[in-house]
Task: structure prediction
Amino acid sequence: MSPGFVQNKQGTVLTGAWRKCKAILVSMTTVSTAVQLLLSARKALNDAREHAATSKDTQMRLLINTAYDQMAELKEAVARVVSENEKLTERIAELQGQREAAPEPRQVGPSVYYYVGEKGPYCQVCFDGKGKLVLLPHPHDWNGGLRRTCAVCGKHFYDKAQDNFTPGFAVVR
Result:
């Protein structure tokens, strides 16, 4: 497998670092195109302004000066959009990096849970069977032990085994 790619249950995917590079390249291409269009329009406007400088038509001069002012405002707006785009690209890459963290199994008492970093515990049965991360609720007391129950699959997980379990009934002969 090439560097920058990982294999998961859904197939081969880009890692976060390579995805971020790809997003930046796409963003830079878009920005580059926008800047080139702006520069071309500005050159055409400068040519028109130079041509109008020798003209006696004051209305045309006024229109060209107005267009020139609007071009400056457009340039500022593009700069703001580019800046916002860079921030959003970074945020997307950050969120994708968080999502890409692979769940790791950890044993807690007699049970094994999945954790993503410090987040968890997630149901082992749901993740192993369906690839879904289902967050388990807080444990509750159960016959002297601590138990969690998955709301999706119904599997019980024990953080602490039952102490000295005695049945709630007796058989008398």
